[in-house]
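Lecture 7 notes: from sequence to structure.
We start with the chain below.
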Amino acid sequence: MKYNSRFAKSLTLAAAGALLLAGCGRTLPAIDAETLSGKKAVLVLAGNSLTEEESDLIRRVSKEKAGSEKISMEFVVKTSTNTEDFSSTINRYPYDGIIAVGSEWKTPVLELARQNPDARFLLLLNGLDSGNLPEEAPANIHLKRLDPAKITGLWNDWVELQQASGLNIMWISRTDSPVPSAWVPSEEADRLLELDIYPGDTWLPQLTYQINASKAGRIALYTPVDEAVLTRIRSLKLPVTDLNTDLAVQYNWAAILAGSFEQSISDQWQGGQAYYSTGESIISRK
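Predicted structure tokens for the same chain:
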């Protein structure tokens, strides 16, 4: 990424910082133009799904990493994920890397990455199941998420016990988050409902039909649903097991952010998808 001069780069980041302070969430104090001159720059976005303790840790780690690597860094927390709120800022200053922490950033970051092909977007998901990166995703985005195989492993014993007892389970998921085939074989596809296939509330009569047809005795949520959807599901008067709320995840944000800064400014950038390592996250049953 080339710039006309150090002076121009300093002015554009100063302007971007002013926009962030004026229209977004809390940020680190604006960095003076002389300090920013000639440095690589990273924008860190902390989503609303993070706890205050997590946001503070990410802020501290980002500041320490930026200082040790002599990187200019802007930090924004608890702010809107509306793409319009950030597209002008991203376009006004050529950040070398944009790190978005929180699963709620997935949709807006995908859109921003398409609009800004010269920027690098590193998306760090924090949901138990936030779906894979779409096949048509641009090469300037890299997504990290929990390994679904680890989640499957934690629930295998429970699923096998239900199957051995003869209980039929109705699975609810999305097309971008397939239920393991061992849990729902292709010949038993009537025991799976993918919510995003059905617009509006049309999924409810379809779910009712499939429950009756398959004689399901329990509903299992493989992917998260909002409270309104959950209320409608519970109205069917079947036991509901949520595979998401019954798991606990610990994220080592210090380790995750350390690698993220290096990746976002590296000359060896690679888009695509990766899973958090054992040292970066731990998943357990509650």
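Points to note: The two ends are 47 Å apart (CA to CA). The first strand starts at residue 26 and ends at 27.
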